[in-house]
Amino acid sequence: xxxxxxxxxxxxxxxxxxxxxxxxxxxxxxxxxxxxxxxxxxxxxxxxxxxxxxxxxxxxxxxxxxxxxxxxxxxxxxxxxxxxxxxxxxxxxxxxxxxxxxxxxxxxxxxxxxxxxxxxxxxxxxxxxxxxxxxxxxxxxxxxxxxxxxxxxxxxxxxxxxxxxxxxxxxxxxxxxxxxxxxxxxxxxxxxxxxxxxxxxxxxxxxxxxxxxxxxxxxxxxxxxxxxxxxxxxxxxxxxxxxxxxxxxxxxxxxxxxxxxxxxxxxxxxxxxxxxxxxxxxxxxxxxxxxxxxxxxxxxxxxxxxxxxxxxxxxxxxxxxxxxxxxxxxxxxxxxxxxxxxxxxxxxxxxxx
Length: 353
Prior knowledge:
Distance between the termini: 136 Å
CATH architecture of one domain: 3-Layer(aba) Sandwich
CATH topology of one domain: Rossmann fold
CATH class of one domain: Alpha Beta
Pfam families: Brix
Strand content: 15-25%
Order of helices and strands: EEHHEHEHEEEHEHEEEEEHH
Protein name: Ribosome biogenesis protein BRX1 homolog
GO molecular function: rRNA binding
Radius of gyration: 46 Å
Structural class: alpha+beta
Keywords: Nucleus, Ribosome biogenesis
Largest sheet: 11 strands, mixed
Number of strands: 13
Subcellular location: Nucleus, Nucleolus
Number of helices: 8
């Protein structure tokens, strides 16, 4: 029996409180250890933890902005690149009067170590700078054949913020300046692993192909069923101009001998059209001179009229009577139509009265 206590004033005996159990005593009895097969099944069915548990080590940040004077297509291309690159940052447009070295200070304020800068000239030419700020190197390209996401309307699609695969042409490993550009493109366009804004999926590919001494950029979706590729967009072509040792300047490491400036290209087209017009004018002038020249008179050949037979002379008839005038059918129809219309108007007036 449990121990009892008595009150001092002779009350009834009260049962003493039971001692509290420890948490260890309250736990249910231990189950027998699971077999190895059950452990394997649990591991198969276990959902892996989120990728954000990993450590974000690659702190690459890309600053994407432009100068003033860009058109709508450039602005849409810039927005598409920002959507595809979750590790990018934006900034206000830079004044065209400012020097390019100012961009290094902007990157430092924005805590960015890479930069994509779009420079517009004459409201029709677009240049792209890819730079490793602040120590370099940097490369300047002429951007051609721009097609944005909204313009293409392709069937491909990818998750926003997903990490892309980078596919390079084998020609990038053949020449040293292409090898340098390949490393620069890898550092700029590859999304860092475990980035806070990135998604733990790889569902699209950035392809860089060299053709006609230019770099062609494409973006494709990877379809899960058969690993086929469907284009998403955007697409553009980069024509290399120069590679500099520093960021936005410095000694020139490489200059493209095949590059032709847009001004020179337009000048060549104008000269071709002018040459065509000049040739037409010369042909017209020659024709006018030929018409003005006196025709050379050949001496009369007496044998030319041997086979010519004179035509029979018709008697001349003099008409003494004036010929009858021709009947104008159109005028007669107009007169009849006017007469009928007047008669109809008179009849209508009589009815109204």
